[in-house]
Every structure is written in C-alpha cells, then in structure tokens.
Amino acid sequence: MNDQPSLPVKTVSSKAVIRNSILSFVLFGLFLVGAWATFKWIKRQPHEAGALRPLRKTLDFNEAVFSNVFDTAVLVKEYPVSQAAKRVRVNGMDGLRDSVNEETWRLKVIRSPGDTLQLTLEDIKKLPKKDIVFDFKCIEGWDQVTHWAGVPLKTFMQYYGLGMQSKMKYVGLQTPDKKYYVGIDMPSALHPQTLLCYEMNSKPLPINQGFPVRLIIPVKYGIKHLKRIGTMFFSNDKPADFWAERGYDYYAGH
Ligand SMILES: Nc1nc2c(c(=O)[nH]1)N[C@H]1C(S)=C(S)[C@@H](COP(=O)(O)O)O[C@H]1N2
Ligand SMILES: [Mo]
Questions:
Q1: What tens digit of pLDDT does each residue of 91-133 get?
Q2: Are residues 87 and 149 in the same domain?
Q3: What are 63-71's contacts with CB under 8 Å, separation 24+?
Q4: Nearest C-alpha to atom 16 of ligand 1 is from which residue?
Q5: Total tally of structural domains belonging to the chain
Q6: Ligand 1 pocket, 62 CB below 6 A?
C-alpha cells in the first residue's frame, strides 16, 4: 500500500473540483445578483407607450426586424369552407356598446384634413368581394378557423383613389365612438388577405362581431381586427392603438 504511488491525477482533480465548485458557486451568486439588479433596474424605468421603457425598446426592435422581413407575397394559410367554425367566438366589446344602424352608419375615410369620404355599406358591397377562411389567432392564446368576406383593403384604396395615402406609413382605424382604435403598418394593410369585411359565414356580420364593417387582417393577431369601423385615416406617425397603450406589441404580427 505504502509503496503504491499516490495517483497525482486524483489529488489534483479533487482540489480542482473544490476550486471549481467554489468558483461556480461564486459565479452563480454573481449571476443571481446581476439578474436581480437588472430586474430592479427594469422596474425603475419610466413607462413608455404603456410598457416599461426597456421592454418597449425590445418590442420596437422586434418590430423593426419583423417589418423589414415582412413579405406581402407570403400568404397566411387558408382552409376549406367546410372547416370553418359555425359558432364563432366573440371577444372584446370595446367600442361596440352604442347602437348601430345600417341607414345612418358611414365609413368615414379621411383623405386629408378637411377632406372626408362618407361611404355606405352598399358602396363597400359594390366592390369585388373576396372570401377567406383562416386560423384567427388571439393574443390571449386561443385560435379558431373562421370564414369571412369583404373587399380587400388594397382594392378599396385603389378604387377610391387613395394612392397618395397608400404611400404613408400607417392606417389608423377607430370605432364610431372612438373607444377602440388600432394602427396598422401600411404593408400589412395592403396585404392581399386584408379585408374590409362585412360577412361572416356568408351572412352579414353579427352586431358583436363588428356589423356593419370590420377589419380582417390575417397577418396580425386578433387585437388588430377592429370591429365596427367608424373612421379610417392615414399617417406617417404611429396612430394611437388601444392594446399597444396597454403594453402589448404594436406590430402584433405572427
Ligand atoms: N371594436 C372592437 N374590436 C375588437 C375588439 C374590441 O374589444 N372592440 N377586440 C379585438 C380582439 S382582442 C379580438 S381577439 C377580436 C375578436 O373578434 P371576434 O369577437 O369576432 O372573435 O376582435 C378584436 N376587435
Ligand atoms: Mo384578442
């Protein structure tokens, strides 16, 4: 036993194990302190557009990346009509609480300050109609394959000579009472699957689903599909957006 040479490797390795353990422990401690400090720092930052500033900065960064890679030629997957839900979920009633009447309702399109088009439901129905069945996704985590129809917003803008407006960066939409409002980046607004929608399951929209006209914008989450459009306008600044003001992603693409 005595003349057996001690195994140097073993001796060194057990020392190394202790050293490494201490080092790992210290590093882990530093990591925890760092994470805690970062968390505290984020919490101390002022709010910006509904979110703590560093988080808002991250959302803005994501938006810059994703809107640059966004390709209007890429279509959202469509499904056969037979797969569309018959009982369509209703979510979000902001801006829908007043009564609405087809005779008096108008889609107000602000072409420029003091120059507003006032369109009836009939005016919109005269334009080429497109159906879409797609997987409607809400940011709250549910999704449902649903069937909608209306005029593509791009066709509508071409028909009403809104070429200059389509060069601007955003479309803003508001309910007639202005209690729900969204901003849409122009490439998504002009995407071929974006509709000024007036039918669900081949019937006029139910009141709680946006009668007479809502937005259907398959490239975005549900928050952007504004029900009961009252006013449309165009802007190079980000239009006010109900859920972005409450901390959600402004771009809200998926
Ligand atoms: N006017 C209005 N539009 C709205 C909302 C709302 O509260 N008010 N909620 C949005 C949200 S969060 C979702 S998921 C969809 C739901 O559409 P649905 O009720 O037809 O399923 O509508 C969107 N459009
Ligand atoms: Mo939603």
A1: 999 999 999 999 999 999 999 999 999 999 999 999 999 999 9
A2: yes
A3: 63/249, 63/250, 63/251, 66/251, 66/253, 67/185, 67/187, 67/251, 67/253, 70/187, 70/188, 70/219, 70/253
A4: 91
A5: 2
A6: no
